[in-house]
Structure formats: C-alpha cells, structure tokens
Amino acid sequence: MSQQQSEDNLKEAAAFTAGGAAAGAGAGALLGGMGLAVGGTAIGIGMAPMVAAGAVVGLAAFGLTKVWKG
Fewest CB atoms within 10 Å of the CB: 24, 38, 48, 52? Predict the structure, then answer.
C-alpha cells in the first residue's frame, strides 16, 4: 500500500468519524435528555455518549464501504 493511499484512507476514515459524530450530536439535540432504566436503576444519557456512539457508527460505515468496494 502506498503512502498516498494510506493517507487517503486516514482522511476518509476521519471524515466518516466526524460525520457520524455530528449525526450523533444532532440526534442527541433532537431527542433531548434521555435515560436508561434497568432493574430499578436509572442513568442519564447526555450528549457525549450520543456523539461517541455516532462516531462509532461512522467508523462502521467506513468499514462497510471498504468491504463493499473490495
């Protein structure tokens, strides 16, 4: 793999991550404060976990495009 191709992959992965993080932030802003209740215990889910989850989904989309392209 050439150095240029490696840099292009890194830039593309960063773009997918940033896009996913932005989508997560948008979802968090749209849905507002959320919580998760299990077994009588509840925790709040704020903006940071939504952004992190969006970044993970963005990286997953990047991986899927690489698999799809071959």
Answer: 38
